[in-house]
Amino acid sequence: MGSNEGEPVQMKAQAVTQEMEASVASVLGVLAWEIELAGARCLKLDALIGELMPDMAPEQRAKLLEGLHTVDLLGQQLTSLSAFARHMSEVTPPDATAPVEAAIADMTLGALADRMLTALGGEEKGLNDGDDAGDLDLF
Amino acid sequence: MTREGQGRRVVIVDNDRTVLELLQIRLDLAGYHPLVERTAPAALETIRKMRPAAAIVELDLPAMDGFDLLKALDPRGEGLPCPVLVMARKLGPDDIREAVRLGAKDCMTKPFSGADMLERVSRLFRRPPPSLGTTRAPALV
Q: In sequence order, which residues have a C-beta less than 8 Å from that of residue B111 and are 6 or more positions away?
């Protein structure tokens, strides 16, 4: 597909440790995908709540409607944020890079971290078999 | 929520799990029946077996890529078994030309929004207006 210019991967071997670097544009692009996915999951939840609604008692339905509204707002917020990240990805200079491994290591959802690492050119660690709940930290 | 998909089967092939899940959810909510595959050989088998209404194919796949998949789906150049929308992070003019030559109906550059993707997919099923005759020009944007 054309050249590799702007592709997510940019590994820089260093003398002592191998610090993985990725172009900022790519990081924003990957972030945009993940936010878009989160927005799509909201839509899914929204549809599910909508399906359950007719079977609810009127007082429960009012509560659920409030929840539905919140989910809808969240979905719209995520879609907007995704568009923003995608746009920023397109206007960020392709030569700007940043280390990403430490930031990914801080992520508490194993499968999500693994997906992002892979998308940025790192090695898959096999945490993708389940849902994102892989390494969920409870606060 | 629109149910424009009418239960049509759509095969999606991409080795990126985020993209796969995103497309799967969006297509499902729009009333399509998405079938996801992570490799071209698996997609080839699914398309042959399930006879989907359309396919969304990432061109940049490991080993057997999207172009190879299109060739395998139509080895004699008689036409693909279903309309195909190809996608890739980088789509140069040569990639687009080659995809169209191999029968792809539309091309989509990543990243794209879920809404954009749905619009492209629904366009795959639209017939050209009678005034355009019977030529099947790809809807490249």
A: A29, A32, A33, A36, A86, A89
